[in-house]
Write a sequence for this structure.
């Protein structure tokens, strides 16, 4: 029996109602990224979701009995240990165009608040996120042999040795573009990569598949339902005090053009973080920070490392329903207890505990 069949069996036996207490008096923070405008769910189902799926998720959330709070209200109640019943917050990372076109209408229909964490570099440039666009073109391309001459001509550096391996070549080109000082070069490189692969990069630009929202779209409060917050400027968080504070300050400065009010909630880019970041985030005026670690949040949770449940087209409906009913939370508690018991045994026999080599919580 696979995992999905097992969950279906649990539901039929009424186990979902029995596990529901594991979801109560806590906070479920849902995480979304982008929505399908063309065929992105086939390309990256963990990152993208169909509008119909998103609508169904929110219907399930409400029918299960959750009240959906703004992030500000949720953090306030969390700190005061006042969360009662089933509580949820909706967060959306990055701020893609598809969020405005497809997610906003659904949120408005249900009158549900959401926090959108904006990464600001590509938002200000209004060009596709380079890495995603390149990965997408490699995914779509049917070319078996690749002519690198146009890339070599653009780069103008004969010392660069490009790999013959398709995946390694893609990674090389992404690294080359990400390290470029000017976005104009990145755009020219993306155009050249598209030509090499037989893909139309201009079409990707025109269809705004990987382009972030405009200033006007970000300024739309959606009847007061949308709260714009921080996600770094370049979608990276260096492991240094100077780099961390610079990323947040540049992000905040870019978003201040668009939004008035407090910019004090933060989302770790790619969910990567380290314990050292906490003091630097506090210096930068951050009140809460969300990760990509799975779990519910309670009054004992660290506000600068809040767990979330990531939802995408890859997550089956029964898996989402199981999370709403606390099945996933119970499973995580059992696993944590099992690891704790195993570690006690390791220590008794003089062995290194599980995870003791880690110095961060990435």
């Amino acid at each position: 029996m696979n995992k999905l069949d097992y969950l279906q069996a649990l539901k039929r036996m009424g186990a979902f109602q029995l596990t529901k207490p594991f979801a109560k008096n806590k906070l479920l923070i849902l995480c979304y990224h982008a929505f399908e405008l063309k065929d992105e769910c086939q390309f990256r189902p963990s990152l993208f979701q169909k509008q119909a799926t998103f609508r169904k998720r929110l219907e399930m959330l409400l029918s299960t009995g959750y009240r959906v709070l703004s992030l500000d209200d949720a953090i306030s109640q969390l700190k005061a240990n006042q969360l009662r019943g089933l509580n949820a917050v909706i967060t959306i990372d990055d701020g893609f165009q598809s969020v405005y076109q497809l997610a906003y209408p659904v949120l408005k229909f249900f009158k549900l608040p959401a926090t959108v964490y904006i990464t600001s570099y590509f938002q200000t440039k209004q060009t596709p996120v380079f890495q995603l666009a390149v990965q997408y073109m490699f995914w779509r391309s049917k070319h078996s042999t690749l002519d690198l001459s146009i890339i070599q001509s653009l780069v103008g550096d004969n010392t660069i040795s490009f790999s013959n391996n398709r995946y390694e070549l893609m990674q090389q080109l992404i690294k080359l573009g990400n390290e470029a000082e000017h976005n104009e070069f990145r755009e020219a490189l993306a155009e050249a990569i598209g030509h090499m692969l037989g893909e139309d990069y201009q079409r990707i630009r025109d269809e705004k598949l990987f382009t972030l929202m405009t200033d006007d779209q970000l300024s739309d409060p959606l009847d007061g339902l949308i709260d714009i917050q921080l996600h770094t400027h370049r979608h990276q968080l260096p492991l240094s005090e100077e780099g961390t504070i610079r990323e947040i300050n540049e992000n905040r400065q870019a978003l201040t053009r668009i939004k008035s009010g407090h910019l004090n909630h933060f989302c770790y880019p790619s969910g990567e973080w380290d314990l050292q970041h906490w003091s630097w985030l506090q210096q930068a005026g951050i009140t809460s920070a969300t990760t990509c670690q799975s779990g519910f949040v309670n009054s004992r949770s660290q506000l600068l490392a809040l767990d979330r449940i990531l939802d995408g087209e890859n997550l089956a409906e029964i898996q989402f329903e199981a999370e709403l009913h606390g099945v996933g939370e119970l499973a995580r508690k059992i696993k944590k207890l099992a690891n704790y018991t195993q570690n006690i045994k390791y220590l008794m026999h003089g062995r290194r505990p599980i995870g003791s080599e880690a110095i961060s919580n990435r």
Notes: The first strand starts at residue 28 and ends at 32. The longest helix spans residues 327-348. The mean pLDDT is 92. The two ends are 31 Å apart (CA to CA).
